[in-house]
Amino acid sequence: MNTSKVRVEVVDQFLLQFSFRLVIETLSEVSPDRKCFRMIGGVLVERTVKEVLPALEANRDKASFNPLFFTMSFHSNQCTYRSQP
């Protein structure tokens, strides 16, 4: 993997985390019984905030990215990385 692809992956991960945080913070401020919509497998479904919030938090945790554990090693102008400790 070249370094530009790694940079794109890092930016994608940060944007994903930012998106999760923004939606979770927004939904945390509304009534748990309020209706909201969620895309599941390409289908838009109606749920309540209390149903969606735990799923969002779980998905955020699965997609977590910690730059402290981001390491790169270079071999002949190629780059590999791992995002786990």
Description:
This protein has 85 residues and is α+β, with helices and mostly antiparallel strands. It has one domain (3-82): Orthogonal Bundle (Helix Hairpins). 47% of the residues lie in helices and 26% in strands. It is built from two helices and four strands; from the N terminus they run αββαββ. It has helices at 3-28, 49-62; strands at residues 35-40, 43-48, 71-75, 78-82. The chain has a two-stranded antiparallel ribbon with strand order 1-2. It has a two-stranded antiparallel ribbon with strand order 3-4. Helix 1 (3-28) packs antiparallel against helix 2. It is elongated. Residues 71-81 have low confidence and may be disordered.
Biggest sheet statistics: 2 strands, antiparallel
Helices and strands: which structural class? alpha+beta
Distance between the first and last residues' Cα: 19 Å
Main CATH class: Mainly Alpha
Apparent shape: elongated
What multimeric state do the chains show?
single chain
Task: Report the CATH architecture.
Answer: Orthogonal Bundle
Radius of gyration of CA atoms, rounded to a whole number: 17 Å
Strand order of the largest sheet: 1-2
What proportion of the residues form beta strands (DSSP E)? 25-35%
